[in-house]
Amino acid sequence: MSVDPIFETDFVKEMARQMRALDTYGSYAGWSVEKVLDPYVMTKERKANVPLIGDPDEETISRVKAFYNAIAVLIEKECKLLAVPLVHLTHEGFGRALITVGKLVAVDRTLRDVHRFGFASLSKMKDEADKILSVAIERIGQYPAVAGL
């Protein structure tokens, strides 16, 4: 049985660490990385079962936070500076995700319909994280003095 190479990427490994860190009751013990990250995969069928309008539950909010925490960890690995994630949401699932490095806002994403947060596949999730990460690293490179504060 060959293992999908996506499970060997830094991002997916970090996502699994973040999700396991949220597991205060040890429910994920013995689970595969694929099973732990399965809630992030929002297939068309799953999306069809989620109402268009709704409030996110605590588990969904935790998954959003874990996603941005993982990106912050990868920023730290890349630039050796502390990256601090902040996810602020209304009870209706609207808000922002910020990652600051020093005094620099390296990531600023508007969040909408968080109750439907997910990706078509783990590969799509990694692609989105890679885009966010590359923009953040580029921004830090453009303003190293601000990022170092």
TrEMBL record:
Q: Which Pfam families match?
A: DUF269
| Name of the protein | Nitrogen fixation protein
- The organism is Candidatus Propionivibrio aalborgensis
